[in-house]
Amino acid sequence: MTTTQDWFISVALPVPLRNTFDYRLPTEADPTANYMGCRVAVNFGHQAMVGIILSCHQTSTYDPAKIVAALEILDHKPLFTAELLNLCWWAADYYQHPLGETLSTAMPTPLRQGKSSAPTLAAWQLTTEGKGLPETALKRAKKQQIALQYLLHNDFLLDADARKLDINSTTMAAMQKKGLVEKVERVPEHQAPKDAADQLLRESPLALTEEQEAALSQLSFHRYTCYLLEGATGSGKTEFYLQAIARTLQAGKQALVLIPEIGLTPQTVARFEQRFACSVAELHSNVSDSQRTNNWLAARDGRARIVIGTRLASLCPMQDLGIIIVDEEHDLSFKQQDGLRYSARDLSIYRANQLQIPIVLGSATPSLESFYNAIHGRFAHLRLTRRAGAAKPPTISRVDLRGKTLTAGLCDASVAVLEKTIERGQQAIVFVNRRGYAPSLLCHHCGWIAECPSCDANLTLHKAPYHLHCHHCDAQKPVNRHCPQCNSPDLNPRGLGTEQTEQWLEERFPDTPIIRIDRDSTRQKNSLQETLAVVKSGKPCILIGTQMLAKGHHFPNIALVVIADCDQGLMSADYRGPERMAQLVIQVAGRAGRGEIPGQVLIQSHSPDHPLLDLLLTKGYHLFARQLLNERQTAFLPPFTHQCLIRAESKRPQNAIDFLKMARQQLSSLMPPSQQLQYLGPIPARMERVNERFRYQLHITAGSRKALQKLLKEGIEKIDQQALARRTRWSVDVDPQEV
Ligand SMILES: Nc1ncnc2c1ncn2[C@@H]1O[C@H](COP(=O)(O)OP(=O)(O)OP(=O)(O)O)[C@@H](O)[C@H]1O
Ligand SMILES: [Zn+2]
Q1: ipTM for the complex?
Q2: Which of the ligands is closest to the CA of residue 473?
Q3: Are 86 and 129 in the same domain?
Q4: Could you tell me if 59 and 157 lie in one domain?
Q5: Same domain? 257 vs 329
Q6: Which DSSP helix (H) or strand (E) runs through 642?
Q7: Are residues 202 and 268 in the same domain?
Q8: Which of 373, 379, 388, 652 has the CB geometry, 3.0–4.6 Å to 226, for a possible disulfide?
Q9: How far is the CA of 348 from the centre of ligand 2 (A)?
Q10: Ligand 2 mean position to 692 CA, how many Å?
Q11: What does DSSP assign to residue 689?
Q12: Total domains in the fold of the chain
């Protein structure tokens, strides 16, 4: 007879090592059970850790005498489905990241820490006193009466159902105070998805426009295809998603919807809940840890039929996934910039392919990568060129700033149009690319500029509260009264930030609400939603904001959009600068005229005749993107080539440089440079010093993705074995988005 003593498990642990670890199965475990994908508690050195079981076997390549027993198996049911394990495996391999850390990235924090994976749902039930009440009680508190009536007919009221009945937590808390209800935790029941199919929709779908109809008829639901939905702003991409998802749900399958970070979620979730009667689970950083865990498990168990989330949702287990939607697929937030540097979009394309299901990448301004794939037939290209409903595309004009006086970033002509817009009782957006009051503080007498002591960066001046702030290392300082160099009191803000425009507009339009939307103003949970409620009311107001305002909001009363400065993107040193500038301009401009009011867009620029800007504004994003693609091809740049960055940082610059020299040597000994493989570096990062550390990088550009992957697979392993690799902080970034 075999005992658990004869069984070994291989475990992936969240440590920066690329191998897995063998343990004995704990004595109380059942060797015939399937533990693959379950969490296990183990001792690793002197530390207790939570790992994931990858396999169970009767032999080990290590000396069995030295293998210790694992402490405890933490799950009854695998947390990682075989499909998710495979996905993480691929991600670890492709992005050159340790598997254990990759699996850890996929899990919500409580699960990572070893907390229980038994899902629970918060619910209310009547106390004995509550049960004694007649249905007609609580007449004076309508909402409480609705809750009471519900509870007299049902055993309990789930928090989620309370929301659907429009009963909020204050109502329930009031009833609890009266001793009528109490809080309980329910184990969720499994809801058979097929039963729900006939009562799927809560509202009837819109009649599709011709273009939407044509695009939807091209979707095939039973095999893998990656669709690029290139749809103008306001063309009704969301309606397209909703109807594609309805068909998926009808077939008894789940849908996964990925959206960019910040702000968008509540709006999108509301749209989905309004349409569908089934359960919609959210996965993003604004959901509490315990709720995130429950939602993650609900997706695994199939209780959640639609999962909506940011990048991190792409690594969630799904019982029976039928479609993936990536909205605003060009958005940078889909790429993680530390740890596992994955692209949620690219990962999802791989996932859809493995599952043989459709994936839709939607955007008005597709990334050049996706655009290229669509043109070359790797993706199916769907287009929506016209706005849905009555809305017309906005008229866009350029405002030449040369020789004009600027106040808080705006010239007189733009202010005059703003004034008219407000007089007409309409709303406007002023787009300013930087937060804070001014990007630097300058001594007018000697030219001294306030710099961050730890970074190669100027300190940003903020007025509310009044201080100097480094946007790179987060250091904060009081504002100097005198120049530390020449002692002159003549210190002045230089450059433009959102706070400055806000302050000036408040003085200029004292009777109009001025609403600033940037990372500083929306730091608190839900505050963005509260602010946006004012905009939704439709009353005249002026919104000032950064990129956050560009992303997918639908405000029907915005008549005017002013882009204070689009020159930065045109002059950028990053080859992606023009692409990003164009996406931003089209997205921000796309907020104007989405309802019945026609939209107008003013683009202020010191180089209004710049050929790229001209191309974008006269020919549109599609032709602009084609031209950029031609330029990229000539310059041996992505998407025609494939890149990897190896980054290193250290307190002494030489350490990082030495490490990268070694890395370059190791790699080029495997594959010497050629026309199809270029090495560049070590070179300093764009900002060389951040937070007292010097940052360098090695760029590798290859003509073929396969060759690059082969090089990395063999090369990183060799680099890993060098002593320098253990002494240096370094990372690998495959398909980097910021170089
Ligand atoms: N078939 C349709 N008939 C009537 N109205 C529609 C239809 N499809 C969409 N709409 C409406 O058009 C407006 C814009 O749609 P939506 O927000 O989906 O645009 P979008 O393509 O996602 O734009 P963006 O990329 O700017 O976010 C919404 O008010 C939506 O209700
Ligand atoms: Zn700093």
Answers
A1: 0.96
A2: 2
A3: no
A4: no
A5: yes
A6: strand 642-650
A7: yes
A8: 379
A9: 35
A10: 8
A11: E
A12: 5
